[in-house]
Amino acid sequence: MDLVIANARIFGREDGLADIGVAGGRIIAIEPRLEAAAARLDAGGRLVSAGLVETHIHLDKTRIIDRCAVSEGTVQEAVALTAAAKRRFTEADVYARARRTLERAVLNGTMLMRTHVEIDPAIRFLGFDAIRQLARDYAWAIDLEICAFPQEGLTNNPGTEELLAEALRRGARVIGAVPYTDSDPHGQIDRIFALARAHDVDIDMHLDLGDGPEGMDIEYVCDATERYGYGGRVAVGHVTRLSTVPPARFEAIARRLADVGVAVTVLPSTDLYLCGRQQDHRVQRGVTPAHKLLRLGVNCSLSTNNVLNPFTPYGDASLIRMANLYANVCHVGGAEDLAECFAMLTTRSARLMRRAEYGIAVGRPADLVIFDCRDAKAAIAELAQPLCGLKRGRLSFTRQAGRLHPAMADQAPWPELGAFEAG
Q1: Which of 154, 171, 240, 361 gives 188 a disulfide partner, CB atoms 3.0 to 4.6 angstroms apart?
Q2: Rounded to whole angstroms, how far apart are CA atoms 309 and 365?
Q3: What is the pLDDT of residues 81-113, one digit of tens each?
Q4: Nearest alpha-carbon partner for 176 in 198, 143, 154, 209
Q5: Right CATH for 3-50+358-398 from 2.30.40.10, 2.30.29.30, 3.30.70.1060, 1.10.760.10
């Protein structure tokens, strides 16, 4: 045995404190008390979970807000500004920006990530190649999965479909879609399903981002999922229009999603920022209540989407913060629902990404995070910080807990602090 994590409160287990034994990068024992000639890390009764899971982020266009003159704050403007900015991207530029955001995500406890990468005749594989290299370079800390998608349309953008197919041949594990930027939304959906089946990859779509229920494509996606036999392999992100429908229709759509096996990713920060722009009072929130979908059998995740760009001009790649934001906006207060918010960053997100080996169990990878709190409810409610992480049994990051310095007569006014590193 290489390591024992002692006195852990394991997420998903209700049997009190336990010790976790690690050897060869995997969990080999979970017992109330492990006696072994191994290094010991005392969790001190804190929450220990498998690494957080980011199901929907855009590393290729992160940190470009200083290059974009945002004035309207609409999705149409964001698409246009990003399209203009990316024509000046270089592979080194994409890598450097994405690296900064990825490192922040790792320090915030994320160990599995699906990043959406734009593919079209203008950008071709520039961003794709940069993110693939990033995935190789940071494999010691995080598993990075690429979803290739056509941000600026497919049927209206000749050559894009062929490039998407090539990205799948080059190793993209997922194909995405953005029907609302296409001149033929249903045509794009059909082509994406056909490509997914031809290359045996999963689907993760941007869908129904808007301020009202008109023109929703969610039911068409459900029909296509059933027609192609793709249940359990389709996710849709945003679906802000679903937040505007009456309860009866919401329930009917939720039951349809559950029946055919379509998962939903809610992106609180972006959805709040982009929605309701046409309203000057009683402004809607635009955040679909994922916890209500869960109760009706739909698998859901909470995710970041964008960091410091025209779609979301702020962010720190903290999934805990994103779940706390969601809980505030959607009036989540009960202990069970708060715990489900944590599950939408962990077990539910891993299920969306079809990662069967995820989780804390004997035989599974020792991808573990210790949080400075006692349980999942407190993690969300108190914005608990991760203190350290293990990726395949090796220390991947540490963060120091906050420390108070009370004034004392014999204390120097400026104790030795050392140097702060640039973020």
Answers
A1: 154
A2: 34
A3: 999 999 999 999 999 999 999 999 999 999 999
A4: 154
A5: 2.30.40.10
